[in-house]
């Protein structure tokens, strides 16, 4: 069975990014994909410190924090979704730390997987953050299905994203497309 994980990079539990990511995963579950929602809220995920340990010990990182179990799930997944709210025009430091270190410690191991970003903002910065995250998926040779528009939505207070009908529909269609593409690649 195909597996999808949705990683929520917000430091707030139950917020708009989590709502949007869960919605995307629900669309995949309808297509028979096994899904798991992973929240980074409350976790200790640090950025890369450029020590070079992963170059000498492939697949490992010298930093001992909460990254390792999440990274194992990323490597085991067929579909990876990474959601982030916009903080000062960019992805959160939790997301950046996760992607920096997951990328360095697993060179080549994401190639051919399916996935992409979901972004939520109060007012602005969605396009830059979407591109920032999308570059990570591209550099790892992942397949990025599209949707009916860029995978961005609007919301500030918890639950406001559900009022963004277009944003919710975009996330839903993105989830459906991820499932379709992953199934085709599995054939």
Could you characterize what this model shows?
It is a single chain. This protein is an alpha/beta fold. The chain has a single domain, classed as Rossmann fold (3-Layer(aba) Sandwich). The chain has six helices and five strands. A five-stranded parallel beta sheet has the order 2-1-3-4-5, with helices on both faces. Helix 1 (16-30) packs across helix 6 (165-186). It is globular. The model has no long low-confidence stretch (mean pLDDT 96).
CATH topology description: Rossmann fold
Strand content: 15-25%
CATH class descriptor: Alpha Beta
The profile of the biggest β sheet is:
5 strands, parallel
Q: Please state the average pLDDT score.
A: 96
Number of helices in the DSSP assignment: 6
Query: What is the subunit organization of this protein?
Result: single chain
How far apart lie the N and C ends? 12 Å
Rg: 15 Å
Order of helices and strands: EHEHHEHEHEH
CATH architecture label: 3-Layer(aba) Sandwich
CA-based shape:
globular
| Name given to the CATH homologous superfamily | Flavodoxin domain
Enumerate the strands of the largest sheet in spatial order, edge to edge or round the barrel.
2-1-3-4-5
Helix content: 40-55%
Structural class: alpha/beta
Low-confidence stretches: none
Structural domain tally: 1
Would you report the number of β strands?
5
